[in-house]
Amino acid sequence: MPNIASILKSEIMRLARKEIKSEIESLKNASAKQRTEIAALKRHVEQLERQSMRSIKAAARAKGEEFQPSEGKQLRFSPKRFASMRKKLGLSAADLGLLIGVAAQTIYHWEAEKTRPRANQLKAIAEVRGMGKRQIKARLEALQAGIQETTSEA
Hints:
Layout: H1 4-63, H2 79-89, H3 93-100, H4 104-111, H5 119-129, H6 133-153
């Protein structure tokens, strides 16, 4: 004959599971509804952003100006692409740091994903990215000549 305590315990567990299941079901439904609402809001925001961008471009065209998307866009940074850009240009970390206005160690930290560049540094990186090898070489020579002048004066 089974123990009355074990029967009572199993019945209490069964009822508790049944209650929990009904409570969780309503939470699942609410969560699913919220997820669909969030997705709809995201789509709406994207649509509004596209419309806004179109109107900005149209206004710029009406004024006779050329639209420059870099003004409204956030600059992105990828350590791997940054390192490959540096190698492609044939620059040392010290040279690239000189162009951007940071130390060579900072360049290594960016490439190793230890730190990320600040907003003003991202602008300088974008500026360097838009330059050719000849422009970079000329600018480096000018910067190094300026450094040599300041060190010889001191």
